[in-house]
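Hey team,

Filing this mostly as a record. A colleague (T.K.) asked me to run one chain through the structure pipeline before their review meeting, and I want the input and output archived in the tracker in case anyone asks later how it was produced. No errors, nothing strange. Just documentation.

Input sequence:
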Amino acid sequence: MRRTAFIGLLLMVAFGMEAQMSYGVRAGLSYSSLVQRIDGVSESGSRMGYSVAGGAMYQYHRHWGVQSELAFTNQGGSYYSAEEGLGSKAVLNKYRYYSLQVPIHLTYLFSFSGVRTGIFAGPAVDFSLFGKMKSKALESDIDFGIEKEDDLKRFDLGMSAGLFAERRNVFFSIRAFCGLLDRNAVRKADESRLYQSNVTFSLGYVFPSR
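Output structure:
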């Protein structure tokens, strides 16, 4: 028992000597889509948006770290809703809205030609704040969380993954979010589920460690 505790203490000291915290900010453009399946075919309506974020990474090993961030994201897209007698592609609805996204990424780190590089993946939570929708040439606010047609659910849970390359505290990153929950507030019998996804290209800066 004492030997096990001693080995555990040595491992904690070894990891603690390598472990370090780093903080950074990023901003970039995002390409977001609302995705649905109609007659067995995936359809996506897309739009351009943006994302700004601040985050932190806990690097507990030379090759491994855990990172998270709080991102303010402009996303949305378009999708078709059904209307009685007109079929599943009767009405095109367009959305643009703002969300807070919080991912938790497990990150693998390595060096490539002198550039610090990381590949990351993990779960992410999306909390929608406010936005606008346009349907049948009429524009209105999105009532997140209200169970009525053409509105969206407020929460989403998804997977986030991507990579970054950092040199001299400046980094470029590509990250993707794929929502796993149906965003329809109300779904008619002949309508498909609706999922949010986005891909973001960002430039960022990591603050020097003291």
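Quick notes for T.K.: The chain is about 10% helix and 70% strand. The radius of gyration is 21 Å.
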